[in-house]
Amino acid sequence: MDLNALYDGNFSQLSDAITDWEQMTKNLAKVEKDAHDHLKAKADKANWAGVNAQVSREFIDKTAAEFTDAHTQADSITNILKDTYDDLVDYRNQLNDAISRAQGKNITVIDTGKGSFEVMPSTRPDWASDPSGNTGVADQKDVDATRDEIQRILSKATTSDTSAANALRMLVDQAKYGFSNAHFQNRDEAAKSLADADRMAEILAKDPHKVTNTELASLNRMLTEHKNDPLFAEEFARKVGPKKVLTFWAGIADPYQATYDPARAEQAKQLQKNLGTTIGLATLSDSDKMQSWEKQMIELGPDQLGIDDASDPTGYAVMSNLMRFGDYDDQFLNDYGDHLLAYDKKVNGAGISLWVNNANQGDLNYWDKNDRGRDPVTGFLQALGHNPDASAQFFAQPSGAGATVDKSSELNAHLTYLTEDRVWTPDITLEGKDGYVAGRDALGHALEAATTGYAYDATADQIKAGGDHRTAATAGVMEQVSYIYGTTEDGPKLLHGQPELADSLGKMAGAYIDDIDYELSGIGDSGKDAGTFPPQYEGRANFTNQGAINFLSVLGQNEDSHRAVSAAQNLYTLSSLSAHPATSDANIDHARSAMTVGATARGILDYSRVEQVKHTYQDDAAAANASLSRSGDWIKMGTGALVGAGVAAIPLPGSTAAAVFIAPIAAGTAGEAVKTFLGHEIDSGLSSNQQDPTEKGQIASVKFYADGENQLGETFATYIKENSHGVDASRAQEWERDIKYAYTSGSVEGDHRGRTPC
Q1: What angle do CA 384, 388, 393 make, to 5 degrees?
Q2: DSSP run (H or E) holding 648
Q3: How many CA atoms lie within 13 A of 559 on its CB side?
Q4: 593 neighbors 523 (Cβ within 8 angstroms)
Q5: pLDDT tens digits along 168-203
Q6: What's the chain's Rg over C-alpha atoms?
Q7: Do residues 275 and 366 make contact, with C-beta atoms less than 8 angstroms apart?
Q8: Could you give the C-alpha distances from 541 to 197, 532, 638, 658, 661, in angstroms and in order?
């Protein structure tokens, strides 16, 4: 900063700008409050269905969020401007005081331009004849002290002005459309954010082998502290640069495997997560510099990094392990994935894999003993599993596809390659599960995100608060998945050959059980019951009647997918009964349809499960009994479920807290029948079969069907008991026969209505 600029500084325009921004912030605070207290609050309470439940609610939520971001950005700008104004006024006063004192000591201060100045003794021709004897020559110590004081003032003023400008510029550049959600209380806070980023970038500039555990701990601590700070993330990513991010992580991750240091390994594990999260946040910036950064990262993908660490990995191999964590820009993930799969098709064949082979001994993933991180497609799919919008785009139906997916040309090329064509190779550690393919599990996670609109590991609380996230786009992915695994000739073989995907497929089908029931409610593809099974979002999934039957029959063949779909079906049926109390003939008809169609779906699933058990275990009655017993335990899955707006989050028993799947709730209700299921903790009646290994498999299957009928009967009886005033005995008897027939028809005609076991 020039000396004269500060000395003569007139900051009235800055003061006026602050006044304007303060008023703007106050106005936006009111708008934000109105948007949340009135617009969004009313939308959340509204009992909407169909298109409104999806489009209008989502639009209102996004609009309210934009007002929040607008207020946040305005407040940050106001705070930074006010702090900077106070600083500059204070520095101007300090400068004026310093120059005034210097003049009293016969010292002259001159601005020489471009941030420089000169301090010198003052001189006058008549001082030599001054009667007082004053020579007018300033003491050199005073000259030097004045110079140093003024330099300190100008340096601080320059820092204040520059850091404010940088922070304001980055705030504005963060979003080309809309507003940044970065918030700062003052200029110092914004400046600290950028300074911390620069300081941490200096650690990554070092040789990773020479970085100490203390430095790694400091890096992890700072990345964690700033994990929600967009300015820190962008400044950090830009200062480090794409290639250094890759070489640093490869260097930290790999060379210490031979000389294992538990403390360093733990720091490395946390760094993988923290570094990935920070880089992901940085990619959300719309600034031109970050756009260039992302392009460079993609260009580095197929090339080896030219290092001794991790078997000299490619850019893809390293970046894919970092992106397992964090929220990444959708377009960046899609561009990255397009290039990665195009390259993967060239190098990953039936012979030796470029990624997983004995020559590649690089370990780049610290978070799964079944996945060393050598296959970059695995890490990328995990990234999609945490980024639902990006995943839905990556697996979107091709343009021009018909209303129903009924041929392979209507399938997304990425989806076809990953499910049908790609060669998957186990990448386990010495402690991993033999033969387990983590990449297929990651594919299931990516498809869960694409079809449900939630990260695959979303918590029950997040789902309860978020409601139904399905859209026409997510339904489009679901239709393709159903066609591949349910209708294509090799659909059942794909399920059995990809066991790691089974639980994800069951969770996906469970999330669309209302649309599946709608397809089963008609005669073929005619006469479907939209009254009982109304669309809960715009562009509901179109499976077709036979497609729904095929898909259910394939999912029923697997123990994991059978139990997830069965639990979702039961809960959805119960919610339909709660939504249609016997207060009118129309309601009774809807309840009857819900029970009958639910029984049909259950029959298809149960028949398929029994036939697969017979096919798999044949004469091994003990194994068959145990398998059917586990399949019957789905009834206990309601325990611990949380019901939100239109959806329920159901935990998978025996899994971690993150293992939750989503089931739709009819009309967003949770009546007594639903609450009964949610509190259900009784053991399955089939558990006794497992205690008796001598029991024949045929008897076990009879018991399995009998328990299925009994469970449906209990549901029916609960509805009749709660609505005894509205359903007479004759109608109840008819209804009971309908339910039993619907369930048993799935057994009797299963081989004609669905896919046979393999």
Answers
A1: 80
A2: strand 647-651
A3: 15
A4: no
A5: 777 777 666 556 666 666 666 777 888 899 999 999
A6: 33
A7: no
A8: 46, 16, 25, 26, 18
